[in-house]
Design brief:
By secondary structure, this protein is an alpha/beta fold. Helix content is 29%, strand content 17%. A hairpin with a 6-residue loop joins strand 14 and strand 15.
């Protein structure tokens, strides 16, 4: 099934349609491409998602020497090369053998619908579960597992040698076979690494890495950000790059994504698992948060004399202190007024931030020049997924000047309180319209005759989302004058940034929400 977040590429579709049908020689795994790349076929070097029964996932980079842990064994995955996404494999010994049926549908089959009518309906009233019904011993089962051609043969032998199998009800028989299949038949499905499959896999395997972001919440983020081909999006992704990868998937190589990151290097490793082409990756740009034009720089510590009673140790990471840590209410309110003064004495951090984060200086300088052009703010949306300890309100004010009028604002958090503070501040500033703070309710149901009900175990929390559209430009942190520009124009002093003026009739961007419907 193709999710709503998957993007079809017309150019690749036409190229694939022009390829002839595969021959027998194409079935041999080869690392050298022989023609146009088929996006629906596993190639050497691709990252894939292997899904076992009971929603057990594993991430594998396919290659001739690559291996993966499937079940309780480490097996070679060279047989996956050339297979189509969505195909199934069964583990036999230490090899993955392709199968032509879906074992998961067999497990979900309704035993009542396939049961043959009988004159006397059996029941379980006379059955005693004391492990004496199975005539095969543990040693016999071990020999059977080593000699059987497939796990289905083992399950069939176990059912035949069970003295109580024929006395069970149809439901009990189906439950017995399903339990034995999960134990003796190991099957995997090769899934394409899309935004949906990766989100489901990480949510089941390691939800803390993606901030407990469920697939329905990710779909809501994509919806309210209005991400599409040609969009320009400014994002702060602290969930391993899942949101950045989903945005790249939606843009399909046309547009621009600027990923702002704190610290020394961007942490977007999940993006590499999407198997994006070079054209898709070209729209992604990384920018240190210290290089933002309105980033409040820390004042330099004055040099201390030898006679000082308490010498202050020199901090190497002084210019890279994360400004997104949640502050007290008094400090947060005073910060916008103190930002211009702190910036006047601070040097331009673009070269330093670029060198220490591993990002090219030319790219950072070009991005900062684009951000400084506030006459034409050209980002269509800002998407923020902060981590624990980050202040969403401070990030929102930091990113706000770069958002175009009527641009989309989306902020995700596993907790409601930080977003409630953003909601209140935005409502009081009248800087946003159609503001919403909500969470999604997602439940999985079992649908069977007379037995339709929600699953007994599921994850109830899906996080909270704040969304809206920008209508006021004077909200947020003002830009800090560049030190290089100030040095070039020494004859003309740079005036200090004035506080944001109140709403007036000359401000075409301000909207009074009391007059709107």
């Amino acid at each position: 099934d193709k999710s709503a977040m998957e993007v079809s590429i017309p150019e690749q579709t036409e190229a694939v349609a022009a390829v002839d049908a595969p021959t027998e020689s194409d079935a041999v795994p080869s690392e050298k491409p022989t023609g146009p790349r088929d996006p629906d076929v596993v190639h050497s070097g691709d990252s894939v998602v292997l899904r076992e029964r009971d929603d057990k996932f594993s991430f594998v980079k396919v290659g001739k020497k690559a291996s993966a842990k499937i079940g309780k064994k480490f097996v070679k995955v060279v047989s996956l090369i050339g297979a189509r996404y969505g195909s199934f494999f069964e583990l036999r010994g230490t090899n993955l053998v392709p199968i032509d049926h879906d074992p998961h549908q067999e497990d979900d089959a309704d035993p009542v619908a396939v049961a043959a009518p009988t004159e006397k309906t059996p029941d379980n009233r006379d059955l005693i579960d004391d492990n004496s019904a199975q005539s095969l011993t543990a040693a016999d089962i071990a020999v059977l597992k080593s000699t059987a051609q497939s796990g289905a043969d083992v399950v069939q032998k176990l059912a035949q040698n069970s003295a109580t199998f024929q006395q069970k009800t149809e439901f009990a028989k189906a439950k017995y076979l399903r339990r034995k299949k999960k134990k003796y038949i190991v099957t995997v499905q090769v899934q394409k690494p899309t935004a949906r499959t990766l989100c489901e896999a990480y949510f089941c395997k390691m939800p803390q890495k993606i901030r407990q972001l469920r697939v329905d919440s990710l779909a809501e983020i994509m919806l309210h950000s209005d991400a599409k081909s040609g969009s320009r999006i400014l994002t702060y992704d602290r969930c391993g790059g899942l949101v950045v990868g989903a945005l790249m998937e939606r843009l399909a190589g046309n547009g621009q994504i600027v990923s702002v990151f704190p610290g020394q290097a961007p942490a977007v490793g999940i993006v590499d698992q999407f198997n994006f082409s070079a054209e898709h990756k070209a729209i992604l740009h990384h920018l240190p948060i210290a290089a933002l034009p309105n980033y409040p720089q820390k004042k330099s510590t004055p040099p201390t004399t030898a006679s000082s009673s308490a010498a202050v140790p020199e901090t190497k990471e002084e210019n890279f202190e994360r400004p997104t840590k949640r502050r007290k209410t008094e400090e947060t309110k005073e910060e916008p007024a103190a930002a211009p003064n702190a910036a006047a004495a601070a040097a331009d951090v673009v070269p330093v931030a670029a060198v220490r984060s591993g990002v090219a200086q030319q790219n950072v300088a070009a991005l900062v020049a684009q951000l400084r052009d506030l006459k034409n703010p050209n980002f269509d949306a800002i998407v923020l997924v902060p981590e624990d300890g980050d202040d969403p309100l401070h990030l929102l004010k930091l990113f706000w000047p770069f958002l175009a009028p009527s641009g989309s604002v989306v902020v995700f958090s596993p907790y409601m309180q930080p977003l409630a503070e953003c909601y209140q501040d935005l409502m009081e500033s009248h800087a946003i319209v159609h503001i919403r703070l909500f969470e999604t309710w997602h439940r999985i149901h079992q649908v069977l005759p007379l037995r339709t009900h929600p699953l007994m175990q599921m994850h109830g929390a899906s996080g909270y989302i704040l969304s809206g559209y920008k209508v006021k430009a004077s909200y947020g942190l003002p830009l800090i004058p560049s030190a290089h520009k100030a040095a070039e124009t020494t004859a003309v002093p740079v005036p200090a940034a004035a506080p944001a003026p109140a709403a007036s009739s000359s401000d075409a961007m301000d909207v009074d929400p009391t007059k709107s419907s």
